[in-house]
Specification:
This is Universal stress protein family protein. The chain is of the alpha/beta class and about 290 residues long. It is built from 8 helices and 10 strands. The radius of gyration is 21 Å and the shape is elongated.
């Protein structure tokens, strides 16, 4: 998990227009996350190469050409950061290269492009969220790099404390930063015998407020938490709509929630994130601890 002191980040590059944006955004990332080392990773997928290009000598030339291209892009960005390395892999499946490298290098944060208008379906990112043990930052090419607002998405579970702590850590990096916290309430799809819609909403509001106050008291939270009604929409779209309205730069969320079943949550809110346009980066926490160390 990202820490308050030193972080190793892995930046995923795919030789598309997205790479230029990610490298340009590294100035913000390195300052915000106290980056100690950057690892650039590109995987040349063997299964997509014709057989005549899979020889050791040819692969060596391909990897060197890719490495030089990444090197030139990084130097062109004029980012004053010397502790970096470039890794060009040749795995059949890119997720295998990411899995191996994040574990070998003890990566704290993986940075991926979240393409909005550029070509790409986000398939690799969805696989990596399930596979990798570290936190992930999904950055759209439309990112609001000048915005100073950070949004914590809370469900009042024990995992929400980590989401809040990371949000507070990021917001405290500058006096100009601003932290927002929300809980999205969604009406269960059930039939309430003898209750009107108004009565149902009232009961759910009272229950949500009760959970909120207990959570605030338990974890001694001082920030204001806004309750947002999903009103028939998916929780993910409600979060991103709120982020857009408030010009949020980074939305912070976790893969675990009240259910504590990680894969179900990934298949729900986190997975749904990829199906909605956004101008905000999405920080997905995979490892949980009381405070960023």
């Amino acid at each position: 998990m990202i820490s308050k002191t030193k972080n190793t980040i892995l930046v995923a590059l795919d030789m598309s227009e997205m790479d230029h944006m990610l490298i340009s955004y590294l100035k913000v990332i390195t300052e915000l996350f106290n980056v100690e080392k950057i690892i650039f990773l590109h995987n040349v997928r063997l299964r997509e190469l014709p057989s005549e290009m899979r020889g050791i000598e040819m692969l060596g030339r391909i990897k060197e050409r890719v490495r030089k291209k990444i090197e030139n892009q990084f130097k062109t960005s004029q980012l004053l950061f010397n502790n970096y390395e470039i890794s060009v892999e040749t795995e059949e499946f890119s997720e295998n290269a990411f899995d191996r490298l994040t574990k070998q290098r003890k990566v704290d944060l993986v940075v991926l492009g979240n393409k909005q208008h550029l070509e790409g379906d986000g398939g690799l990112a969805q696989k990596l969220i399930r596979l990798l043990p570290c936190d992930m930052l999904l950055v759209p090419e439309t990112i609001r790099s000048t915005s100073k607002k950070y949004l914590c998405t809370l469900d009042f579970s024990k995992y929400s404390k980590s989401v809040y702590n990371v949000g507070r850590f990021l917001a405290e990096k500058s006096p100009d930063n601003y932290l927002l916290s929300i809980h999205v309430a969604k009406t269960p799809v059930h039939f309430f015998l003898g209750l009107s819609e108004i009565e149902i909403r009232k009961l759910l509001k009272e229950e949500t407020e009760s959970k909120k106050m207990k959570w605030i008291k338990q974890y001694q939270i001082s920030s204001e938490i806004e309750i947002i009604q999903a009103d028939g929409k998916h929780i993910a779209s409600t979060i991103l709509q709120y982020a857009e309205l408030n010009k949020v730069t980074i939305v912070i969320m976790g893969v675990k929630g009240i259910s504590t079943i990680t894969n179900l949550f990934i298949g729900g809110v986190t997975n749904e994130i990829f199906h909605h346009e956004t101008n905000s980066a999405i920080l997905i926490l995979k490892n949980y601890q009381e405070e960023p160390k």
